Task: structure prediction
Amino acid sequence: MRTKGTGCPYCSGAKVLAGFNDLATTHPELSNEAVGWDTTKYSAGSGQKVFWKCTEGHQWATRIISRTNGSGCPTCSPMQYDPNEKGWLYLLQHDDWGLMQIGITNQPDKRLAKHARLGWETIETRGPMDGAITRGWETSILDYLRRNGAKIGVESSQGKFDGYSEAWLTDSFPVKSIKELMSYVEKDEED
Result:
């Protein structure tokens, strides 16, 4: 029964119907990378954190919605971040473009210098931390931002730039620190 404008729970993804809106049906290529869970029980927009295995044999955990939004194996990533090495989490701001960006690196001096050449200002860095934990924080923060109104993946006046898929319009979700973002994620995971 429809009341107060609510629509079909299956079309909206609120409920899963195997063969219609389940991950196995909507994203069969991702379904092949699932490890230890049934892809017919979840929709593409699920926030459930699950295990994946890429074609190279690397395993990691991330939310289903992260995968359907384009994230892939962190070890195979072209940004050459190695979750087996120490990692740093960083927060950047670009006043001219009106953007903020969260990111991870194994080589903070080199990575932040590259961003600085494009006009990014470093707000904060955290690390060194365990590389897999660092990657998990970045993924959780980006998931939280997507679910809470941040306009992510916006091209600048310069077009696409290194890290644009981790950048958002400052006005859509202003923050002052990584600690603030981490506290939002922790509170969200408690609820």
The helical segments are 23-26, 28-31, 64-68, 108-117, 131-147, 178-190. The CA atoms of residues 111 and 124 lie 13 Å apart.
